[in-house]
Design a protein that fits this description.
about 210 residues; single chain; six-stranded antiparallel beta sheet; two-stranded antiparallel ribbon; alpha+beta
């Protein structure tokens, strides 16, 4: 669905306002990883791209709409093996694999729990790009969006998923660690045990977690 200039402008303004208290121009750190709180609010392209991403994915607060548009659930809830937090369930659109287009996120991340109507709640949007040489020790092909580098490369999270890079944007659930932090400490997985200590192995009963700290 095309995004009107007015919709994008309104979303951009909302994004800028939401980021301004957390990151001031003087305090904005250089982008080294996706762990930072947010892109520089003075980065006009990053603000426009965030606005577009929010505008085009707002309809996916309805899980049924995501399914209709080709997003398919893969794997189980991902639990952080390095500390507190989790992600949720990933719904992936294969046609958007490798996308760095803000209007075409590869995946939508939904809540582990369901609401009163039995539906999962939209938490985040995510872009995934294959690691070209499938070598976890090289990073020459690392992509970037919103003025931030993707995380990775990392192993796939379910059968058939290649080694890849990814970047998350928690557009629909507050993340205390930052809008672009991969793990959200306010999220947990069904059956999760208390948060693991740094360096601990994942709980065997749960799906092996996202391989980044």
């Amino acid at each position: 669905m095309p995004v009107s200039a007015r919709t994008a402008a309104l979303a951009a303004a909302a994004v800028a306002l939401s980021l301004a208290p957390a990151v001031t121009p003087a305090a904005a750190p250089p982008a080294r990883a996706v762990e930072g709180p947010a892109p520089d609010p003075l980065d006009a392209q990053a603000m426009r791209d965030m606005a577009v991403a929010i505008a085009v994915t707002a309809k996916y607060v309805d899980e049924e709409q995501a399914l209709k548009d080709g997003y398919v659930r893969h794997g189980e809830c991902l639990l952080n093996p390095f500390g507190p937090g989790a992600m949720g369930y990933h719904y992936v659109k294969d046609a958007y694999w490798g996308s760095t287009d803000p209007s075409k996120p590869t995946a939508l991340v939904y809540s582990p729990e369901t609401d009163r109507n039995g539906k999962h709640r939209l938490y985040a949007v995510e872009w995934m790009v294959s690691d070209k040489d499938q070598d976890l020790t090289t990073t020459e092909d690392r992509p970037s969006m919103f003025g931030l580098p993707f995380d990775g490369p990392m192993p796939g999270h379910w059968a058939g998923m290649p080694r890849h890079y990814d970047i998350h944007m928690w557009a629909y659930k507050e993340n205390p660690s930052g809008r672009f932090h991969n793990w959200n400490p306010a999220v947990t997985c069904p059956g999760a045990t208390p948060a693991a200590k740094p360096g601990a192995t994942p709980t065997p009963a749960l799906t092996p977690a996202h391989q980044h700290s």
